[in-house]
Each structure stands twice: as C-alpha cells, then as structure tokens.
C-alpha cells in the first residue's frame, strides 16, 4: 500500500464507538487501493468495514493519502444521499489541494489523526 492514511477527529470517535480498529482501517485501505471498494467518483470511495456492519466514506488524493471522513451502520441507513455525495466530492477536492504543511497543521490541531503510513 502506498500513501498516508488519516481519519478525521469525528471519524475517530465514531470508529471507537463502533469498535473499528486502526489495523482494520489500514487493511481496508490496502483493499481500496486494489479496487475492492465502491468508487463514487471525484476521489470519494465507500468501503465496508467491521464484518460488513458499517460503511465508511474515504476521500483520496491518488498515490499520496487517504482520509476516512464518515462512518455509518448498515442497519441505520442504506447509503448516503446525493447531496451528501456532492459535499464529500467537494471535501475531497479541498483535501487534494492541501499541501504537506497544511496536513501537518491539521495533525497538530487534532483535526486529523494519522493511522498508517505506507505499511
């Protein structure tokens, strides 16, 4: 797997509550990189987690980094709606424009948490 993997502070709280480990998140990104996820376009992917009980929305900057942005339980909702998808695509575009210094600032502020880096 290449690239760094992050989760937002919101996602970190949701994943802890859902008992989704960082190891599972890193393994899932390796699968996404192999095409084993639903590509929603615009740098947005949907990946099943936690023995298919949860879905995650992942934002990508190809070859550089991945950001876990949203988590929902399959039992609570079937999917995100079109408005949410549009918002995630805009957010993915914002992340694609971020410099390494901007990412480091988000890490220092706690807005992002790095969970794996190429391993």
What layout of secondary structure does this protein have?
Layout: E1 4-8, H1 9-18, H2 22-33, E2 38-41, E3 44-49, E4 54-61, E5 65-73, H3 82-97, H4 100-109, E6 112-117
Parallel strand pairs: 1-5
Antiparallel strand pairs: 1-6, 2-3, 3-4, 4-5
Descriptive terms for the model:
119 residues, alpha+beta, YaeB-like fold, six-stranded mixed beta sheet, 40% helix
Question: Could you characterize what this model shows?
Answer:
- The chain has helices spanning 9-18, 22-33, 82-97, 100-109, and strands at residues 4-8, 38-41, 44-49, 54-61, 65-73, 112-117.
- It is α+β, with helices and mostly antiparallel strands.
- The protein has a 6-stranded mixed β-sheet with strand order 2-3-4-5-1-6, sandwiched between helices.
- It is globular.
The string of secondary-structure elements, in order, is: EHHEEEEHHE
Radius of gyration: 13 Å
Number of helices: 4
Q: Assembly state here? A: single chain
Report the uncertain regions: none
| Level-1 CATH class name | Alpha Beta
In the CATH scheme, what's the topology name? YaeB-like fold
Outline of the structure:
The protein is of the alpha+beta class. 40% of the residues lie in helices and 32% in strands.
